């Protein structure tokens, strides 16, 4: 490995994030791109380019660029394959009616990426460079951002960081890659939101106190998949996890945060406890719901409160929140010896009025259909 002197290092750091653009010689044809944009499945197709930057313990960040989307070449000994030193983010670029392209609260994703990096002993990406990386990629691949007329379509952006050093020693890696890829995304629910069914598991735990639950890292997802498989085996679409200590307090639904709408108008979500991931959508729903006149509560909510509230009618609606699906209505909860239907399924496919209102309010903001009074939008292109 090349060691750089102090002086060279200063130069490297200054030049670190210039996002040199290497346009690919064989971009997708306009027809091929149009075919993808006509019906984008989530996370299946990727744009022509990607961002990469490399970090070494001696040289810091260098070589940031926008380059052709292509496979990476890594040693089989790269630390990420063995010890899961990896983090990621997920956010969307939205095309507005005037053709401009915007991100929703990307500063929050940047800050969360920093926090996740700290927890996984990965280097920091300066938060303004994180946003600059998104802008660099979206500027080059702007034609891949679906048009405003296509409803809830967007360009999903996936920043990530992996330990690339070829070394099996157990310590924070000395070589790391930061990247951003982008994937056109259609509406999560093709025919409008439909309530999903949830399996309430107590046999699989997603995250533990002091663990990595509050960081956005691949390891959390790997450890949640057995719970998801259990849900599917029991005829449900998604899984709800409880806390690791008492197996009693609700934490998350799959990779989404969860909300309860009470018949009296209150809205509650599990309080952040160190093992729940703090969603940008979650934070935004809390503010928007309060604006809409709902008392909002962040507190511990037990699985029994959920069941009892649905039985008694105190809980009128349940939904989950996350960037990919925005707001997912929950229509049913099942567990090893029980099964409950939530809300009135004769009305509007079972999507409750409060869930619908919050979902519409959020989407209208993201797509620029209502004024951005909180400065939540950042222009990318
Ligand atoms: C990403 C994520 C969420 C949702 O976060 P958003 O910022 O709203 O997309 C919720 N839970 C987990 C575990 C996540 O990884």
Automatic annotation (TrEMBL):
Keywords: Amino-acid biosynthesis, Aminotransferase, Branched-chain amino acid biosynthesis, Pyridoxal phosphate, Transferase. CDD domains: BCAT_beta_family. GO terms for biological process: isoleucine biosynthetic process; L-leucine biosynthetic process; L-valine biosynthetic process. It holds the Pfam family Aminotran_4. It catalyses: L-valine + 2-oxoglutarate = 3-methyl-2-oxobutanoate + L-glutamate; L-isoleucine + 2-oxoglutarate = (S)-3-methyl-2-oxopentanoate + L-glutamate; L-leucine + 2-oxoglutarate = 4-methyl-2-oxopentanoate + L-glutamate. Its cofactor is pyridoxal 5'-phosphate. Pathway: Amino-acid biosynthesis; L-valine biosynthesis; L-valine from pyruvate: step 4/4; Amino-acid biosynthesis; L-leucine biosynthesis; L-leucine from 3-methyl-2-oxobutanoate: step 4/4; Amino-acid biosynthesis; L-isoleucine biosynthesis; L-isoleucine from 2-oxobutanoate: step 4/4. It comes from the Bacteria. The modification N6-(pyridoxal phosphate)lysine is found at residue 216. InterPro entries: Aminotrans_IV, Aminotrans_IV_CS, Aminotransferase-like, B_amino_transII, BCAT-like_C, BCAT-like_N, BCAT_family. GO terms for molecular function: L-isoleucine-2-oxoglutarate transaminase activity; L-leucine-2-oxoglutarate transaminase activity; L-valine-2-oxoglutarate transaminase activity. Belongs to the class-IV pyridoxal-phosphate-dependent aminotransferase family. NCBIfam families: ilvE_II, PRK13357.1. This is Branched-chain-amino-acid aminotransferase.
């Amino acid at each position: 490995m090349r060691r750089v002197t102090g002086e060279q290092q200063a130069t490297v750091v200054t030049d670190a994030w210039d996002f040199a653009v290497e346009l690919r010689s064989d971009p997708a044809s306009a027809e091929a791109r149009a075919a993808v944009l006509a019906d984008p499945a989530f996370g299946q197709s990727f744009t022509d380019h990607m961002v990469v930057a490399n970090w070494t313990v001696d040289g810091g960040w260098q070589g940031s660029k926008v380059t052709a989307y292509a496979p990476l070449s890594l040693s089989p000994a790269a630390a990420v394959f063995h010890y899961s030193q990896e983090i990621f983010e997920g956010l969307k670029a939205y095309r507005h009616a005037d053709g401009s392209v915007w991100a929703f609260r990307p500063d929050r994703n940047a800050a969360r990426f920093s926090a996740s990096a700290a927890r996984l002993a990965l280097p920091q990406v300066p938060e303004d460079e994180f946003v600059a990386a998104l802008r660099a990629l979206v500027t080059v691949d702007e034609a891949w951002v679906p048009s405003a007329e296509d409803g809830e379509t967007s360009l999903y952006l996936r920043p990530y960081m992996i330990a690339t050093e070829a070394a099996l020693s157990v310590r924070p890696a000395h070589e790391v890659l930061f990247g951003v890829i982008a994937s056109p995304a259609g509406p999560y629910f093709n025919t409008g939101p439909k309530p999903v069914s949830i399996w309430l598991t107590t046999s699989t735990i997603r995250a533990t106190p002091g663990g990595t639950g509050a960081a956005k890292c691949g390891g959390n997802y790997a450890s949640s998949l057995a719970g998801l498989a259990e849900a599917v085996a029991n005829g449900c679409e998604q899984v709800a996890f409880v806390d690791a200590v008492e197996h009693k307090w609700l934490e998350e639904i799959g990779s989404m945060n969860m909300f309860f709408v009470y018949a009296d108008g209150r809205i509650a979500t599990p309080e952040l406890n160190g093992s729940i991931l703090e969603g940008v959508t979650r934070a935004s729903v809390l503010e928007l719901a309060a604006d809409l006149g709902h008392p909002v509560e962040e507190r511990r909510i037990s699985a029994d409160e959920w069941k009892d509230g649905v039985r008694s009618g105190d809980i009128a609606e349940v939904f989950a929140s996350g960037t990919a699906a925005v707001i997912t209505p929950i229509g049913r909860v099942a567990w090893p010896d029980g099964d409950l239907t939530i809300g009135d399924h004769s009305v509007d496919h079972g999507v409750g009025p409060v869930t619908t209102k919050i979902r519409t309010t959020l989407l209208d903001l993201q797509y620029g259909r209502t004024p951005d009074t909180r400065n939540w939008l950042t222009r990318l292109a």
